[in-house]
Amino acid sequence: MIELAGVSHQFRIGKRGKERVVPVLHDINLKVEKGEIVAVVGRSGSGKSTLLNLMSGYIRPSSGEIRVGGQNVTKLDEGEWANFRLANYGFIFQSFQLIGSMTAYENVELPLVLKGIGSGERRAKVMKLLEQVGIAEFANHYPSELSGGQQQRVSVARSLILEPPIVLADEPSGSLDSENEKTLLTMIRQLNHELGITFVIITHDEQVASIAHRAIRLQDGRIGGLA
Ligand SMILES: Nc1ncnc2c1ncn2[C@@H]1O[C@H](COP(=O)(O)OP(=O)(O)OP(=O)(O)O)[C@@H](O)[C@H]1O
User: Which SMART domains match (predicted)?
Assistant: First the structure.
């Protein structure tokens, strides 16, 4: 589903003429199979977010090749990546990233509006998902009127609304208490089991890593180190 072959990445920082190269990922070879839940673990600064940003096209590898769903995406331009992301990825973030001026319903609906889907179909899809994640009764609440756990459920529903085959999650339970974390992890397992969605989850948390089929440990930008 996602394949990285010989991928390295270095950032260039500093003013022109005085640039410094910061190598972050080194020769990453990795395959995430369809239907897998893969946890990416490792210390702060080990390169986890950089790896996720490479998978989702927000940064380009300095070298190596990335394939997603059989397609070589290494050289897609910004516009092509934007379309590719919409068709292939849902995203879940530690800080939920909901739009504060929109209700739970509207937050989940937005990707469908942008895609030009009619209102009847939108309503059916949004309500079905809100029910699936257990917060249909809060559909008309604004994010500020919801608990952290409820907000994260809205963001899970939003990540799934375009029916992506892959969900990328960056510390999805990082802002949740242990009860809400448990609920989120059960939900992820269920979605994986019932819908076959592939998950790649960055985490510091052993609980999260324990629901994964496999953990990839990054250490100093290399796979296989001890986390
Ligand atoms: N845009 C950037 N420019 C320069 N250096 C960067 C940039 N983004 C990340 N880095 C550096 O790359 C290294 C890896 O960062 P990254 O965010 O991928 O680590 P991480 O494992 O996700 O860390 P954390 O767990 O703290 O989020 C760090 O040393 C960081 O300072």
Answer: AAA (SM00382)
Domain boundaries, the chain: 2-97+164-223
Q: What does each C-alpha distance from 169 to 1, 15, 53, 132 come to in angstroms?
A: 16, 33, 11, 19
CATH 3.90.870.10 given to domain 2-97+164-223: no
Residue 120, token pair as written in the block: 């009847």
- pTM given for the model: 0.90
CB 36 within 8 A of CB 94: no
| Cα–ligand 1 centroid distance for 205 (angstroms) | 18
Task: State in Å: Cα 53 to ligand 1 middle.
Answer: 11
- Please write the tens of the pLDDT for every residue from 69-104: 999 999 999 999 999 999 999 999 888 899 999 999
